[in-house]
Each structure stands twice: as structure tokens, then as C-alpha cells.
Design a protein that fits this description.
single chain; mainly alpha
């Protein structure tokens, strides 16, 4: 097992701190989510549990495409977090995610507060707070 871990270490972000590793983790999970959105509607229906009939295969694939786009931006950020433009774009992916899930829950009434919604809300909120608190540090690394 340690040989597998040792073989992965060279591919981890080299920027100091945990935020780049968090970005890598979040983007990896989003890629998994993208794949499942192209295969099935099962997990998406756990988010939009108040109106699961609106989770169609087309809606799921569209959501998967949006998720993949966010994953690519966040993956790039994992390795280039000191780039101000990448930092801002990545921050915006979390704002958009938070707004989407919040609106679906509080305004449109499609999402229900449960295990499907808690994850995206926690990830987007904690990432925005973390990025806000660490912005000066990461953007000042290579000045």
C-alpha cells in the first residue's frame, strides 16, 4: 500500500499548505460526480429529492457537464493557486455552486435538506471561507 502512495506523491500539488490538496480532492470527487451524472440520475435525485421527477437524464448530463467544468477549474487551481486569475475563477465556482444549491433548496423547492444537499453546501461554504482567509497568503507566494 505504501508503494502506491509513494508513487502518487510526485503528482500532488507542490504549493505549500493544505488548500491546494483540498482543491485536488474536491476536483477528484467532482470528476466522480460527473461520471455518475452521465451514467445514472440516482445520486442527483438525492439532492433534488423534493422534485425527483425533474431530474431527467438530460438534466443529469447537463449538471454533469457543469460539474466537470468546475472540476477542471479547481484541478488547475490545485497546481496554480498563486495565480490571481485562477484564484478568482476558482472562488467563483464555489459561489455559483452555493447559489445554485441554495436557490434550488430555498427558492425553487426542488432540493431537500438531506445527505445529498449537505455535501455541496459544506464544500462550497467551507471552500469560500478558506479561500477568503488564505487569499493574501497564496497570492503573495511568488511575488
Amino acid at each position: 500500500m505504501s508503494a502506491i502512495i509513494d508513487s502518487l506523491v510526485p503528482y500532488l500539488p507542490t504549493t505549500p499548505g493544505l488548500l491546494p490538496k483540498w482543491m485536488l480532492f474536491v476536483s477528484t470527487m467532482a470528476i466522480f460526480n460527473t461520471i455518475q451524472n452521465f451514467i445514472t440520475t440516482k445520486l442527483s435525485k438525492q439532492i433534488y429529492l423534493r422534485k425527483p421527477d425533474q431530474v431527467t437524464p438530460l438534466a443529469s448530463r447537463t449538471f454533469g457537464t457543469w460539474t466537470l467544468t468546475s472540476a477542471i477549474v479547481r484541478l488547475y487551481a490545485a497546481y496554480h493557486l498563486s495565480n490571481p486569475q485562477i484564484y478568482e475563477l476558482t472562488y467563483w465556482t464555489y459561489i455559483v455552486a452555493f447559489a445554485h444549491f441554495g436557490l434550488e433548496w430555498m427558492v425553487y423547492g426542488t432540493a431537500g435538506f438531506g445527505k445529498g444537499l449537505v455535501g455541496p453546501l459544506v464544500v462550497s461554504t467551507s471552500s469560500m471561507v478558506w479561500m477568503t482567509m488564505q487569499k493574501e497568503y497564496y497570492l503573495g507566494l511568488y511575488v
